[in-house]
Design goal:
By secondary structure, this protein is of the alpha/beta class. It has 2 domains: 2-236, Nucleotidyltransferase, domain 5, CATH 3.30.420; 244-422 and 450-483, ATPase, nucleotide binding domain (Nucleotidyltransferase, domain 5, 2-Layer Sandwich), CATH 3.30.420. Helix content is 35%, strand content 21%. The chain has 18 helices and 24 strands. The strands form 7 sheets. Strands 1, 2, 3, 5, 13, 14 and 15 form a 7-stranded mixed sheet that branches. The protein is globular and about 65 Å long. The N and C termini lie far apart (58 Å).
Length: 483
């Protein structure tokens, strides 16, 4: 038996083929791009996702005989995107992506609507799905009147695979149409967003069956038996499944383009005023919360580009042990910020530059600014009662030992590094497929990977970095007045 985990990422698609025991058989990736028709807009053509999937499947089928024993598929996808379909299932316009900010005004109106935060458990961010549809209603009324279904990106791949309209609860949590506590669509939230229940996909648990692979795809892919398609998951919920973060005390920090500090929760503890995301997990009876900063590793990448260097070259110049906090300070708000400020317009910068400041000082300041931004998310999580005893570190930024020690120190939490190999959202999706096909308990399938190292906080520097963080917290109110 074999299972397929599909990770529909923002810039590319990754497909993972695993055996019945969850061991990785093969993986392959395909890239695609964004379109930016106007400032602040970000769109993709869903046809590119299908092309990438079919190409990846063709490779796996040709190279790996185990593909013929495929029993289950699950899709993880980038959240909040709006794929608009007409009554025949045809795409009406390019998908409006999670990082599209055109609906800032519509989001503010929805966020101020009575009951919206209380029912959804979240602030209505400009990147969420509901304000996107309000924007389409206002600016593209001819398209809006034709909308028969609104699907999230992962749900659109589910539609391609099964012919049915199915989304999982973790992904649907980021729409501002779902009652996250009750785990169902909310009539009141839909009405506030000008939408109808019949325009929504059916929502199921991520580890539950969501449909069967279409007969034409079974034939084209050379498969004899039935193939179940699981509900799937939003990308961060799938990543949590991939590292076994399902219950209280478990979580991860992700140093990718954006930065995420995620905590799995055994109950529902919304705190919209903190700008935390509070979403359903991809498994029954669980939720998760996360703080999101929009410019994490991308801040270092931005500076590396200016310097004509690579991020690894910049961080490699730092010593193995932590330096004292930098005199230069960096505000990591290159694209605005979510947690804890919910400010799409704030921008970053360096403070405290002097003639003696070096590239190394500025590199250190960037790493510290991101670490302090993650500390903001930790403070917000702790205000809801979340306790992270140890977190897994994932993403491109984990290649810097200095940055890892710095983050562990600023958070006062040990960071676990998983052994090399496939993990994260694609593996989490494959595990959801196993659970959907076999009916296995998710906790038995979604176990943590082996650790190759644990990075402990630097006790000698902890007080200095706590003081530096307290100073960092005073900077946002000051620079906000300078816009």
């Amino acid at each position: 038996m074999a299972y397929l985990g599909i990770d529909l990422g923002s810039s590319g698609l990754r497909v993972l083929l695993v055996g019945a025991d969850g061991a990785v058989i093969a993986t392959t990736e395909r890239a695609y791009g964004f379109s930016h028709p106007h400032r602040g807009w970000s769109e993709q053509d869903p046809k590119d996702w299908i092309t990438a999937l079919e190409d990846a499947v063709a490779e796996l089928r040709a190279k790996h005989p185990a593909f013929q024993s495929l029993r289950g598929i699950a899709v993880s996808g980038h959240m909040h995107g709006a794929v608009l379909l007409d009554q025949d299932g045809a795409v009406l316009r390019p998908c409006i992506m999670w990082n599209d900010t055109r609906s800032e005004a519509e989001a503010a109106i929805l966020d101020q609507t009575a009951g919206v935060r209380e029912l959804s458990g979240n602030i209505v961010f400009p990147g969420f799905t509901a304000p996107k549809l309000r924007w389409v209603e206002r600016h593209e009324p001819e398209t809006f009147t034709k909308v028969a279904k609104v699907l999230l990106p992962a749900a659109y791949l589910n539609f391609y695979l099964t012919g049915g309209y199915v989304s999982d609860l973790s992904d649907a949590s980021g729409t501002s149409w779902l009652d996250v506590g009750a785990r169902c669509w909310s009539s009141d939230l839909l009405a506030a967003g000008g939408m109808r229940r019949d325009q929504m996909a059916e929502v199921v648990e991520g580890s539950a069956p969501g449909g069967q692979l279409r007969e034409i795809l079974r034939r084209d892919w050379g498969l004899a038996g039935p193939v179940v398609v699981a509900g799937g998951a939003g990308d961060n919920a799938a990543a949590a499944c991939g590292i076994g973060a399902l219950g209280e005390g478990q979580g991860f920090v992700s140093l990718g383009t954006s930065g995420v500090l995620m905590a799995a929760r055994d109950g529902y503890f919304p705190a919209p005023d903190t700008a935390l995301h509070t979403f359903c997990h991809a498994v029954p009876g669980r939720w998760y919360q996360m703080g999101v900063m929009l410019s994490a590793a991308s801040s270092l990448g931005w500076f590396a580009g200016i310097c004509g260097a690579t991020p690894a070259e910049l961080t490699g110049a730092l010593p193995e042990t932590l330096r004292d906090p930098a005199r230069v300070q960096f505000l990591p708000y290159l694209s605005g910020e979510r947690t804890p400020h919910n400010d799409a317009n704030i921008r970053g910068g360096f403070l405290g530059l002097e003639a003696a400041s070096t590239r190394l000082d500025m590199t250190q300041a960037i790493l510290e600014g991101v670490a302090f931004g993650l500390r903001d998310s930790l403070e917000a999580l702790q205000s809801t009662g979340a306790q992270l005893d140890q977190v897994m570190a994932v993403g491109g930024g984990v290649a810097s030992p200095y940055w890892l020690r710095l983050i562990a120190t600023c958070l006062d939490v040990p960071l676990t590094l998983p052994e090399g190999g496939a993990f994260g959202a694609a593996l989490g999706a494959a595990r959801l497929a196993i659970a959907a096909d076999t009916g296995a308990n998710p906790e038995a399938v979604m176990t943590p990977p082996k650790a190759r190292a644990v990075i402990d906080p630097d006790a000698e520097k902890a007080a200095q970095y706590d003081a530096a963080y307290q100073n960092f917290r005073t900077l946002y109110p000051a620079i906000k007045t300078l816009r």
